[in-house]
Amino acid sequence: RRERQRFVDKNGRCNVQHGNLGGESSRYLSDLFTTLVDLKWRWNLLIFLLTYTVAWLVMASMWWGIAYLRGDLHRTHDDTYSPCVANVYNFPSAFLFFIETEATIGYGHRYITERCPEGIVLFLFQSLLGSIVDAFLIGCMFIKMSQPKKRAETLMFSRAAVVSQRDGKLCLMFRVGNLRNSHMVSAQIRCKLIKSRQTPEGEFLPLDQCELDVGFGTGADQLFLVSPLTICHEINSKSPFFCLSQRSLRSEQFEIVVILEGIVETTGMTCQARTSYTEDEVLWGHRFLPVMSLEDGFFRVDYSQFHATFEVPTPPYSVKE
C-alpha cells in the first residue's frame, strides 16, 4: 500500500494552502465578516471576548472622564448639585452604569440627568455603537453555529471503490449513505478525476481535473438518499478509465474526488460532503455486500456491512482491450 499526498482527505478536507499572497491579503479585510466566520472556534471566541471587553472598558472610561471633567466625583454627597450621572463616583460605578445601560438592565440606582448634554450625546453614541457591535459579532457567531458542516459528518462514503461488471458493462462503483432520518433534499453527486497529464503541446498539468459521468444524462446523479446507494460510473469509450485494466491499475496514480451536495431538510441550508479515493483504494473484481433487509413492516439497514466487499469474477482487461 503506497502512502502519498492527497488532494482531498477522506474526511473531505482539501490539502491546499495559499501562500505568497502579497498585497492580495488585503482582500481578507475587505470581506471581514466572511473572514471571521471562516476562522476556527478558538479565534472566534477570543475575538468575541476581546471586542466586548475593550468596548466596555473604553465606554466606561468615557463616562468616568465626563464625570471627572465636570467635577461630579468630588460632589457626590452634595444634595443641591445635579451630576451628569447620578451615583457615579469612581470608575467601577461608571463601569456598572455602562453595563446597566448597554444590557438594558436598569437597576434604577444610577441614571443620566437632563442637565448633561455631553452625556446625552455619549448615550446616543453608545446605543448606536452597541447595536453595531452586537449585530456584527452575534451575527457572526450565529452564522458559524448554524453552518451545516456537522451535518456532513452523518453522510457516509465507503472506504473503497470497486470495479466490477453490472448489466454486462464494466463499472466503477462506490457507496454513499445517510445516517440520519432527516432527508437531504435535492441531493446531487459529482465526481472529479484528479490526475497529472501532459498535453500534445508539451504542457504539463500537475492536477488536471476531469469529470466522471455518474448519470448526468439519465438523472442518476439526483439521489433519493433515504437508504445507502451505490453510485455507478460506466467505463466506456468516453470514460478516462477506458484504457484501465487490472494490471495497469497497479502503476496508475490518480485520485477520485466525490462531492455530495444537498439541502438540509431541517434548516434549509446547503450542505456539502466530500471524500476521495486513490488508486490504492480501488478494488478490482469486487462488489459491495447488501445492507438492506425486510423486517416486520419496514426495511432495515445494517451499517456494519456498509464498507464490506466480496470478490466476483471480473475480466482483468480494460474496456479498450
UniProtKB/TrEMBL annotation:
Its main location: membrane. GO terms for biological process: potassium ion import across plasma membrane; regulation of monoatomic ion transmembrane transport. It catalyses: K(+)(in) = K(+)(out). The chain crosses the membrane at residues 45-66, 120-143. Residues 8-148 form the Potassium channel inwardly rectifying transmembrane domain. It is a multi-pass membrane protein. Residues 155-320 form the Inward rectifier potassium channel C-terminal domain. It is found in: Membrane. InterPro entries: Ig_E-set, IRK_C, K_chnl_inward-rec_Kir, K_chnl_inward-rec_Kir3.1, K_chnl_inward-rec_Kir_cyto, Kir_TM. One of its GO terms (cellular component) is plasma membrane. Keywords: Ion channel, Ion transport, Membrane, Potassium, Potassium transport, Transmembrane, Transmembrane helix, Transport, Voltage-gated channel. The record marks D134 as: Role in the control of polyamine-mediated channel gating and in the blocking by intracellular magnesium. One of its GO terms (molecular function) is G-protein activated inward rectifier potassium channel activity. It comes from the Eukaryota. Belongs to the inward rectifier-type potassium channel (TC 1.A.2.1) family. KCNJ3 subfamily. This is G protein-activated inward rectifier potassium channel 1.
